[in-house]
Amino acid sequence: MDILLVDHPLVAARLSIMRDERTNNSSFRAALADLGTMLIYEASRDLRVEQFPLTTPVAATTGTRLADPPIIVPVVRAGLGMIDPALKMIPDAQVGFIGLARNEVTHEPVPYLEALPDDLSGRTVFVVDPMLATGGSLLHAVRILADRGATDITAVCMVSAQPGVDALAHSGLPVRLVTATIDPELNEDAYIVPGLGDAGDRLYGPRNIDL
Ligand code: PRP
Ligand code: URA
What we know:
Pathway: Pyrimidine metabolism; UMP biosynthesis via salvage pathway; UMP from uracil: step 1/1. By secondary structure, the chain is α/β, with parallel strands linked by helices. Helix content is 30%, strand content 32%.
């Protein structure tokens, strides 16, 4: 699997704000939005472009635009925080939604929402989720996208854990990973170590879905 580990001082600084337990919800959301912008920028590096004629106030020249804007698919909840930064960078992107919540005992993803185009063949898809821990949620999401015909899938995650990266790499699914860090391990509750805690809770407060 192709992995882009984004090694940049601004990425590392925003990630540190997110990791710090003293960071409140509002500052966490702000740092996540900034980091999301940077990761989407990096994930977009190889998007196909097309040329078109335009005129500046001075002369005729050639402009460049995306030939095929990707569809952005946040994994709800925590992925919701990455929609605005993604749309800021790619304003004409479409957005689809996959809702998953990890069962706190089994650590398996429980699906509760799927709002996507039926046919994703030929489309570039960015699936965005701040956290890749066991990999169960992202694998589930990528399988949904692949079942709809997607073959060009980029997972944009902020904190990835080595076990989740390994699971994704061994899945055989058509996915590449863009991430700010690969943390070494999970604890007994399947939280990433050192990680940043529960990303959904740190963005929005504790969730109240009974699983
Ligand atoms: C988090 C995170 C991922 C998942 C990662 O969501 O946003 O979707 O956990 O864990 P995994 O790799 O072990 O599957 P969570 O299920 O806590 O839901 P939330 O975003 O609603 O809090
Ligand atoms: N989900 C999170 O939000 N954080 C983790 O560390 C693991 C899963």
